[in-house]
Specification:
This protein is of the alpha/beta class. It has one domain: Rossmann fold. The chain is 43% helix and 14% strand. It has a five-stranded parallel sheet, with helices on both faces. The chain is globular and about 55 Å long. The chain starts with 15 loop residues before the first helix and ends with a helix. The relative contact order is 0.19.
């Protein structure tokens, strides 16, 4: 990151708490991590619908969607993946300050990336959801055909095949999609958020 002494942070006279009075909810970052095909996007799409139906302001930041715009200039090297998560963590923290419930659905394979995102969101404002599924299940699902391409060597540095995934050590919740339906997963997460 480039440091420039001519760039100065401008404080607002409106606080996150002022915004939360308007939204009637606590701004939060709910960070979904797991292998490709584990069910992150499927769960967050359903959860976003539920939150909106309940009158809660919510926005979903999905890994593939973000790479179409904000992060279109990034590849999949370790440095690019780190920058991908850094940018998304910054955006999620801004959304949280706006009083939104922000659902972030990214593989985010490295623990240090997820730790950075937690720190950016702030204490009591970050929930890590580990969407767990066996590699075999993810390969069977393979909704985008990515595992097949990775196994043929057509995709380099693919998480779970040729690139490591560091399982979360202390997530707030583990959703095992080998055993849980989407509806059950959404219910579990809603219960957790209601008490958070």
């Amino acid at each position: 990151m480039i440091e420039d002494k001519n760039i100065v942070w401008h404080e607002s006279e409106v606080t996150a708490q002022d915004r939360e009075k308007i939204t009637g909810q606590k701004g939060q970052v709910i960070w979904f991590t797991g292998l490709s095909g584990s069910g992150k996007s499927t769960i967050t799409v359903e959860l976003e619908k539920r939150f909106i139906a309940d009158g809660r302001l919510c926005y979903r930041l999905d890994g593939d969607n973000i790479r179409h715009g904000l992060n279109a200039d990034l590849g999949f090297s370790d440095d690019d993946r780190e920058e991908n998560i850094r940018r998304v963590a910054e955006v999620a923290a801004l959304f949280k300050d706006a009083g939104l419930i922000t659902l972030v659905s990214f593989i985010s394979p490295a623990a240090k990336m997820r730790s950075f995102a937690r720190q950016k969101a702030g204490k009591g404002r970050f929930v890590e959801v580990y969407v767990k599924a066996s590699l075999e299940t993810c390969i069977k699902r393979d909704p985008k055909g990515l595992y097949k391409k990775a196994k043929k060597g057509e995709i380099k540095d693919f998480t779970g095949i040729s690139s490591a995934y560091e399982e979360p050590e202390n997530p707030e919740i583990i959703i095992d999609t080998d055993k849980m339906s989407v509806q059950e997963a959404v219910r579990e997460i809603q219960l957790l958020i209601a008490n958070y």
